[in-house]
Amino acid sequence: MKKLMLIIGFFFLTFGAVYSQSVTGKWKTIDDETGEAKSIIEIYEKAGKIYGKVVDILRADHKKDICTKCEGAEKNKPIMGMIIINGLKKEGSEYNGGTILDPTNGKKYKCYIALDAPDKLKLRGYIGISIVGRTQYWTRLKN
After folding, report:
1. Nearest-angstrom CA–CA distance, 15 and 39
2. 44 SS3 class
3. How many domains in the chain?
């Protein structure tokens, strides 16, 4: 009986730890086409909303790139330091209701993010409805 109670307790502790993980932290992005690591994005919370900022560009020849195809305030600004995820709100196990900017093409998309595993982030950018879009998986950087 003690073993059974111990197993049940362990299960709930493990289950709770996985689902209490936060999306905040530093994440490595991967290029969809080449599979190459592209950048480090720091996801943070501010005033109850989630944002993501480019804190490192991993490809040396792109470190000084500017967003020539962006519109508005981001036009011709350095991609390094740019906030690309804006205003996501927590709804259940995912965050949505905000946008993501793709500095490669300068376009903003609706998006949602959710933890797929403690160190794996699922991010989906889309136009209109989430069926029309693409999904990326980012990996958490360890401290």
Report:
1. 31
2. strand
3. 1
Instruction: Report yes or no on 15 lying in a domain.
Output: no
Collapsing DSSP to helix, strand or coil, 100 comes out as strand
Q: In this structure, what token pair is assigned to residue 31?
A: 């290029």
> What CATH number is associated with residue 46?
2.40.128.520
Q: Give one word for 8, left, alpha or beta, with left for phi > 0 and alpha for psi -120 to 50.
A: alpha
Residue found under tokens 């069926």? 131
DSSP state letters, 70-90? --GGGTT-BSTT-EEEEEEEE
Which of 99, 105, 38 lies closest to 70, judged by CA? 105
Note the pTM of the prediction, 2 decimals: 0.83
Strands 133-140 and 49-57: what pairing? unpaired
Q: What is the pLDDT of residues 58-113, one digit of tens each?
A: 999 999 999 999 999 999 999 999 999 999 999 999 999 999 999 999 999 999 99
